Amino acid sequence: MDGSVSDMATRVPRGVDVVFEAPRWSERWVLQDGVTMPVTPEHQRTTTLLREVLEAFIARTGLDATAGEDIALRWDKAHSTVGVDPDVYLVQPALPKGARSILTWEAGHAPPRVAAEVVSRDTAKKDYNEGPLKYAASGTRELWIFDPERRGRGLMGGPWVLQVWRRTRMGEFRLEYAGDGPAYSEELGAWLVVTDEGQRLRIADDEAGERLWWTVAEAALAGEGRERAAKEAALAGEERERAAKEAAESELATLRAQLAARAGR
């Protein structure tokens, strides 16, 4: 499977087009079952938030899909220990119930529509240099590499806060964006935006990030907030109505008193 890097005007660093062969497997890509890389709490918060946003997207749209974190993605049955562990993934159709790995040669196991890697000190070199190769070989349709601390540097340069790699109709895997964000995700039809002083990667309907995709918990809080605001508005309206009624009654009492005073003269 081919992988290629394109010069996308000013969004991707200018230079000579690089086309590389993505091997189906490499001994460096062997996954050891039960062995996971330690992650920092900040890294975990970033991946969890992104996963929860994707889960809410699935629930909101009724999509037959699965979103999750840190699963073994394997694509070569002849070398079944070769793979990659996406920090976050979205696969469609949904994985079979109980699946603990994505095995693309098995029925019901599709390559990710989206995979995301959050760069850390220990993974920077791997995420920049080998990440695109592995995801190109796996059949993944879109890869996001988020490097909030600018730790990485690869064959094409860097570091960049955000990279978006995308599979073309011809099957090539191309670097479509590299920079500080925002960047467009064709797979989701939405924008990837960097928030929280550069520490979080989120999804939004607009490039400015004003219409963020919420997690289920955020949507619930927003709903409670709207309900509370509606109740407060209703109470304020009742208070205005009561005050107006009291003012009218007071004015009427004053007029009656004036009329009574004139009649008594």
Question: Can you tag this structure with a few keywords?
Answer:
tt1808, chain A; alpha+beta; 13 strands; elongated; 265 residues; disordered N terminus; six-stranded mixed β-sheet
Write up this protein:
- The protein is α+β, with helices and mostly antiparallel strands.
- It folds into two domains: 2-214, Alpha-Beta Complex (tt1808, chain A); 216-265.
- The chain has helices at 41-61, 124-138, 216-263; strands at 2-5, 18-21, 66-69, 72-74, 88-91, 101-103, 114-118, 142-146, 162-167, 173-179, 183-185, 190-195, 200-204.
- The strands form four sheets. The chain has a six-stranded mixed beta sheet with strand order 3-5-7-8-9-10, with helices on both faces. A three-stranded antiparallel beta sheet has the order 11-12-13. A two-stranded antiparallel sheet has the order 1-2.
- Strand 11 and strand 12 form a beta hairpin.
- The N and C termini lie far apart (107 Å).
Summarize the SSE layout with pairings.
Layout lengths: L1 E4 L12 E4 L19 H21 L4 E4 L2 E3 L13 E4 L9 E3 L10 E5 L5 H15 L3 E5 L15 E6 L5 E7 L3 E3 L4 E6 L4 E5 L11 H48 L2
Parallel strand pairs: 4-6, 7-8
Antiparallel strand pairs: 1-2, 3-5, 5-7, 8-9, 9-10, 11-12, 12-13
